[in-house]
Design a protein that fits this description.
single chain; about 220 residues; alpha/beta; Cobalt-precorrin-4 Transmethylase, domain 1; Methyltransferase, Cobalt-precorrin-4 Transmethylase, Domain 2; 2 domains; five-stranded mixed β-sheet; three-stranded parallel β-sheet; about 30% helix; elongated
């Protein structure tokens, strides 16, 4: 969490968000009005936040990571109109791709792509095309939402696509944070899917130049050493 986000939560009257996100900020929600929503209630969350703001309350709509990266910022801007008279401030956070990269070394030192494997809002055919293009273009590629109990084949398909364009020993890093504890490991393209992977795991696949030094992934920028 950034300092600005913490200050906004401390200053607000009302907090709105997904119930799992609300749980993580329980130390900042004391004495405030809190509205919690379940999964797939993103539109309802944003509409409630706008409604409360129209009533003159200072509202914090909570996202995980950064609100502008797979978060609520875009949806709020789409739903709020000029007649609502609501001032909207988007406060940056720390996306999982940033946190993962820092834990794994420096894998994002050159051009990279971030692709979500969740097909709840995006057709799988489009996701697969993006994976193939990123792999062919030699982008370092971060994968969000790689695997759930019911949706477990997409990550293998993604791996197989990258195997068509990259060496099997290409470094791959896995990162997750659960209950405040981080876990991360560096593997390779051939083997990483054998490791524990769930919806909270962020996976970073290196490009053709990415290598591992002392257990840390490095993607060179091209500086002369």
């Amino acid at each position: 969490m950034t300092v600005g986000a913490r200050e906004a939560l401390q200053a607000c009257d009302v907090i709105v968000g997904y119930k799992s996100y609300i749980k993580t900020i329980s130390d900042l929600s004391g004495g405030k009005e809190v509205f919690q929503f379940g999964m797939r209630k993103e539109v309802e969350r944003c509409k409630k936040a706008i409604e409360l703001a129209k009533d003159g309350k200072l509202v914090a709509l909570v996202s995980s990571g950064d609100p502008g990266i797979y978060g609520m910022a875009g949806l709020v801007l789409e739903l709020a109109t000029e007649k609502d008279g609501v001032d909207i401030e988007i406060i940056p956070g720390v996306s999982a791709v940033n946190a993962a990269a820092s834990a794994l070394g420096a894998p994002l030192m050159h051009d990279f792509a971030v692709i979500s494997l969740s097909d709840l809002l995006t057709p799988w055919e489009k996701i697969e095309k993006r994976l193939r293009c990123a792999a062919a273009a030699d982008f370092v590629t971060a994968l969000y939402n790689p695997k759930s109990t019911k949706r477990n084949w997409q990550i293998k398909t993604a791996r197989d696509i990258f195997m068509q364009f990259r060496d099997s020993k290409t470094p791959v890093g896995l990162y997750a944070k659960t209950n405040g504890k981080q876990r991360h490991t560096v593997s390779d393209l051939a083997s990483f899917i054998e490791l524990p992977i769930d919806m909270n795991t962020t996976i970073i696949i290196g490009n053709s130049q990415t290598h591992v030094v002392d257990g840390r992934m490095i993607t060179p920028r091209g500086y002369k050493l």
